[in-house]
Specification:
Blueprint lengths: L1 H4 L15 H6 L3 E4 L5 H8 L6 E4 L27
Parallel strand pairs: 1-2
């Protein structure tokens, strides 16, 4: 994703967990989160996202990547009768 975004005329930077994420978010207009699921809550403790466009591409998978976790309950399937 970074490679593609750097081909634009925008100022693009990538940051890791050991970087000063508070400063990185403060300097950004748009923040793309590509973090383990649930990490956004921890990031909110060290950075102010007020007024930022945040794109979160996290996927709720189990820690060992063996399955999908969701807090939402599945909706019952409706049966259709076609004649």
């Amino acid at each position: 994703m970074l490679k593609v975004l750097k081909q634009t005329q925008h100022n693009v930077a990538a940051h890791a967990r050991d970087d000063d994420l508070g400063a990185a978010v403060a300097d950004a207009e748009i923040v793309i989160l590509a973090t383990p699921y649930g990490a956004a809550a921890e990031l909110a403790k060290v950075a102010d996202f007020t007024g930022k466009l945040v794109i979160d591409v996290s996927n709720p998978v189990t820690a060992d990547y063996s399955g999908f976790k969701s807090a939402m309950k599945p909706r019952p399937q409706k049966r259709s009768l076609l004649c």
